[in-house]
Design a protein that fits this description.
Number of helices of chain A: 3
Distance between the termini of chain C: 45 Å
Largest interface: A-C, 39 and 40 residues
Oligomer: heterotrimer
Strand content of chain C: 5-15%
Strand content of chain A: under 5%
Structural class of chain A: mainly alpha
Number of strands of chain A: 0
Structural class of chain C: alpha+beta
Helix content of chain A: over 70%
Chains: A mainly alpha (90), B mainly alpha (91), C alpha+beta (524)
Order of helices and strands of chain A: HHH
Radius of gyration of chain C: 26 Å
Largest sheet of chain A: none
Helix content of chain C: 55-70%
Largest sheet of chain C: 7 strands, antiparallel
Number of helices of chain C: 20
Number of domains of chain A: 1
Order of helices and strands of chain C: HHHHEEEHHHHHHHHEEEEHHHHHHHH
Number of strands of chain C: 7
Shape of chain A: elongated
C-alpha cells in the first residue's frame, strides 16, 4: 500500500478546495436555473445545497483512486455544468 | 412529556447497547443468546421512536424532533458515563 | 489506500489547519446561546421589564422628546430573557447624504420597564461573544466572515470525513477508556463527536447557510443578475420619507396586537420600527420575534399613521421557509429553557471535540518522537498553540467579564476597552503558554480561569447590588442563574486543573522523559 507524498496530499487538497468551490458555484447556478419552482425559491434551495456539493467534492478529492480519475471526473462535471447553464439561458 | 421522552430515549439506547455482546457481558457477566440480542435491538429502536413521539407532544411537531435529538445525545452521554465509571452488580 | 485511510488523512488536515480558530468559534458560539442572559449580567443597572404597553408609551414619549425629526425610530421590545428596552433613532439625512446605518453612535438609549431612560454602562454585553464567533475582531468584517466561512467548510469536511473514517462507530458508541493516554484522548474525541453528531453537523452546515448570500451568490445571480436585485425581490427597503406636515404618533399597542393576530397564536412582536415618525406620511412596521418557532423570519406587518394595516404577512415559498428554518436552527432563539440547555451541552461537547482533537494530535505524535525532551519545531508550535487557545481563551473571556465590572463607568470608549482587556489577557495567557513548562502552562491557565470565575460572584457582592443573594431575594432568576453558572464553571475548571497536574506527572511520556534524561523512572 503506497503512502501519499506531500505533493499528492497538496494536489488533492487544492483540487478539493478550488475545484470544490468552482464546481459548487457552477452547479449552484445550474440548479437555480433548472429547479421547477419560483426563481426566488430556486435560488435559495440551490445555494443551500451548494455547500453539501462543495463538501462532497472535497471528500471525493481524497477518496478518488487516482489523480487522473479526479481530473477527468472534474472536467466532465465542469463541462456538463457549463452546457446545462448555457442551455438554461436560452 | 419531555421527561417521558428522555426516559424512553434512555431505556431505548440502553436496550440497544445491551444487544451488543460487550455491554451485555459487562452487565450480566454472560453473552446474550442471539434471539434475545435481536429482541433487545428492536425493542430499543421502538422505545427511541416512542421517545420521538413524546418529544413532539412535549414541544411541538417541528421543534419536537430537534429536542429529541438533544435528549438522545444527553441520554447517550449518561449511559457512556455509567458504563465507564460504575461497576455492575457482582454475580 | 482504503477509503477509511484517505478520509483519515483528510480529517487530520481539515481539522488541524484551522483547528484553533474553530475552537475559538465554537467556544464563543457556545456561550452565545446565553447571549441575552450575559447581556443582562453585563448591564446590572437594568431590571427586568414586562409591561409592553408602558414600555411602548414611554419609548414614544422619550423619542418624541429626543429626536422628533428623526428619519426613523427603532424600539426593541423586552423579552423574558433580557432586561430593559433599547431604543435607537436614525437622524434625517442631509440632502445628498447617504442614510446612515440604523445604529449610529450615540443614537441609542436604554429605557427601563416604564419607558424612562436609564444610565447604563457602555458595554457590548453578550453580543460581543456572539459577534466574535463570526466577525472575529480587529479585522474588517467582510474578510473575517470570509475566513470564518472557509473554516466552517473545513469543519464540515472534518465532520463528514471523521464519520467515514470511524471504523467502529456503532460498536464503540458507549466506549470511553480513561487513564490510557492516547487511547483515552481518541475515545474522548470520538465520544464528544459521535454522541452529539446531529448537532455538530447541523450547527456547522446552518452556520454556512446563515451567511450564504456572501459565500455563494451564484444561485441568486443566475436568476436575478445581481445580489441587490435578488434582495429587492425579497423585501422592500425602508427608504427615508420626505417630511411634510406633522401628525401625532398613533397608539402602538393596538398595532402590535393586530400584528400578533396576523401572525397567529403564540406569536410575539420583538421590534417596532417607525419611519418618519410624527409625520402625516409616517409608517409603522412591527417585526416578529423568533422565540416561538424555528423559522427565523421577522414577517414585517406595516401600518400607516392612522393605524390601518397597509401590508400584512406575505406568503413565503419553500426556499425562504427552508432558509429561515436553517438560520433559526443555528441561532436557536426558538428554544425554550430545556432545549437551550440541550443546545448548550451539545455545543460544549463540540468545543471539547475540537479541543480534544487538537490535543490528540500532539499526544499521538509525542509517542513517536525520538527524544520527547526535544521535539521538532512543528510539534512545539502545535503544542503551545493548543495551550494558548484551549486553556488561554476561556481565561481571556473571563477577563472581559472582569473588565465589565471594574472599568470606570464614565470612561470613554468603554465598550471597546472591555474587549481590549479581553485580548490583552489573552496575550498574557499566550506568553505564559509559551514560556512556562508544559504541565505548569496548562495547569496555571486552567487554575487561573477557575479562580477568575469563582471570584466573579464575590466581586459582584462588593461592587454591585446584584450579588447572588440580592438577586435571589429580588426573584431575579436570570441574574442568579448566571452567577451560579460562574461558580459551577469555576469548579469545573478547578477540577480540570487538578486532573492535568496529577495526570501529567504519571503519564507514560513523563516516565519516558525521565528515562531518557537518566532520572529514576517512578514518579514522585
Amino acid at each position: 500500500m503506497r503512502r501519499w507524498s506531500g505533493k499528492e496530499i497538496t494536489l488533492r487538497g487544492l483540487f478539493g478546495l478550488l475545484g470544490g468551490y468552482g464546481l459548487a458555484a457552477l452547479w449552484c447556478a445550474v440548479i437555480a436555473r433548472w429547479l421547477p419552482m419560483a426563481p426566488l425559491d430556486a435560488s435559495l434551495i440551490a445555494t443551500i445545497l451548494s455547500f453539501l456539493l462543495f463538501a462532497a467534492v472535497v471528500i471525493w478529492a481524497f477518496a478518488s483512486r487516482s489523480l487522473g480519475r479526479l481530473t477527468g471526473g472534474g472536467a466532465v462535471c465542469i463541462l456538463a455544468g457549463i452546457v446545462l447553464l448555457k442551455g438554461s439561458m436560452l | 412529556m419531555i421527561i417521558a421522552s428522555f426516559l424512553l430515549a434512555l431505556a431505548g439506547l440502553a436496550a440497544m447497547g445491551l444487544s451488543q455482546p460487550q455491554h451485555h457481558g459487562w452487565l450480566f457477566h454472560r453473552p446474550a443468546p442471539k434471539m434475545q440480542s435481536v429482541r433487545l435491538h428492536w425493542s430499543g429502536l421502538t422505545l427511541i421512536l416512542l421517545s420521538l413521539i413524546a418529544a413532539m407532544q412535549g414541544w411541538s411537531a417541528t421543534i419536537g424532533p430537534v429536542g429529541w435529538l438533544g435528549l438522545l445525545s444527553l441520554a447517550a452521554a449518561l449511559l457512556l458515563l455509567a458504563r465507564t465509571y460504575l461497576s455492575p452488580p457482582r454475580r | 489506500m482504503t477509503l477509511r485511510q484517505t478520509q483519515t488523512i483528510l480529517h487530520t488536515w481539515s481539522g488541524l489547519l484551522f483547528g484553533w480558530i474553530l475552537f475559538g468559534i465554537f467556544l464563543a458560539g457556545t456561550v452565545s446561546f446565553w447571549r441575552d442572559e450575559i447581556s443582562r449580567w453585563t448591564r446590572p443597572e437594568l431590571t427586568a421589564s414586562i409591561d409592553r404597553k408602558a414600555t411602548l408609551e414611554g419609548a414614544v414619549r422619550f423619542l418624541a422628546d429626543k429626536a422628533p425629526d428623526a428619519a426613523g425610530w427603532n424600539i426593541a421590545l423586552p423579552n423574558d430573557r433580557g432586561a430593559g428596552t433599547l431604543v435607537s433613532w436614525q437622524p434625517q439625512p442631509k440632502p445628498g447624504e447617504e442614510p446612515r446605518a440604523r445604529r449610529g453612535r450615540g443614537n441609542e438609549q436604554w429605557l427601563d420597564g416604564m419607558g424612562r431612560p436609564v444610565a447604563v454602562r457602555a458595554t457590548r454585553g453578550g453580543d460581543f461573544f456572539y459577534r466574535l464567533h463570526f466577525d472575529l475582531y480587529y479585522v474588517p468584517v467582510y474578510w473575517a466572515r470570509c475566513f470564518v466561512g472557509l473554516c466552517a467548510m473545513f469543519m464540515l469536511v472534518a465532520i463528514i470525513s471523521g464519520v467515514i473514517s470511524h471504523k467502529k462507530i456503532f460498536k464503540d458508541f458507549f466506549t470511553f477508556r480513561p487513564r490510557k493516554g492516547q487511547r483515552s484522548w481518541l475515545d474522548g474525541h470520538n465520544a464528544t463527536a459521535v454522541l452529539a453528531l446531529p448537532f455538530h453537523f447541523m450547527i456547522t452546515f446552518t452556520g454556512l447557510v446563515t451567511l450564504m448570500g456572501m459565500y455563494m451568490p451564484w444561485g441568486a445571480i443566475a436568476n436575478y443578475g445581481s445580489m441587490p436585485a435578488f434582495y429587492a425581490a425579497q423585501s422592500t427597503k425602508d427608504l427615508p420619507i420626505e417630511r411634510s406636515a406633522r401628525a401625532p404618533v398613533p397608539e402602538l399597542m393596538p398595532l402590535v396586537a393586530a400584528a400578533e393576530a396576523q401572525w397567529g397564536a403564540g406569536s410575539e412582536a420583538a421590534t417596532v420600527r417607525l419611519i418618519a415618525p410624527g409625520d402625516v406620511k409616517q409608517q409603522i412596521v412591527v417585526l416578529r420575534g423568533s422565540a416561538d418557532r424555528v423559522a427565523a423570519s421577522d414577517q414585517p406587518v406595516r401600518f400607516d399613521g392612522s393605524g390601518h394595516m397597509t401590508r400584512g404577512v406575505q406568503p413565503e415559498g419553500v426556499g425562504r421557509v427552508s432558509r429561515d428554518a436553517l438560520i433559526g436552527l443555528h441561532a436557536g432563539r426558538f428554544a425554550d429553557l430545556t432545549l437551550r440547555w440541550l443546545y448548550f451541552l451539545s455545543s460544549i461537547a463540540g468545543t471539547v471535540m475540537v479541543g480534544s482533537g487538537l490535543v490528540l494530535w500532539t499526544v499521538k505524535r509525542r509517542e513517536r518522537l525520538p527524544d520527547p525532551a526535544r521535539p521538532h519545531l512543528g510539534f512545539r508550535i502545535v503544542d503551545r498553540l493548543n495551550i494558548a487557545f484551549v486553556a488561554g481563551m476561556p481565561l481571556a473571556m473571563t477577563g472581559f467579564l472582569w473588565a465589565n465590572r471594574l472599568l470606570p463607568l464614565a470612561m470613554k470608549a468603554r465598550a471597546n476597552a472591555e474587549v481590549n482587556v479581553m485580548f490583552l489577557s489573552w496575550v498574557l495567557a499566550i506568553i505564559w503558554a509559551i514560556a512556562a513548562p508544559r504541565r505548569t502552562a496548562w495547569t496555571g491557565l486552567l487554575a487561573a480561569t477557575a479562580l477568575s470565575l469563582l471570584s466573579l460572584p464575590v466581586l459582584d457582592l462588593l461592587v454591585t447590588d446584584c450579588g447572588l443573594l440580592a438577586s435571589i431575594g429580588r426573584g431575579d432568576s436570570v441574574m442568579a442563574a448566571v452567577e451560579i453558572s460562574f461558580i459551577v464553571l469555576g469548579l469545573c475548571f478547578a477540577w480540570m486543573a487538578r486532573t492535568v497536574w496529577n495526570r501529567a506527572a504519571r503519564s507514560p511520556t513523563a516516565a519516558r522523559r525521565r528515562r531518557v534524561a537518566g532520572e529514576p523512572v517512578t514518579a514522585s
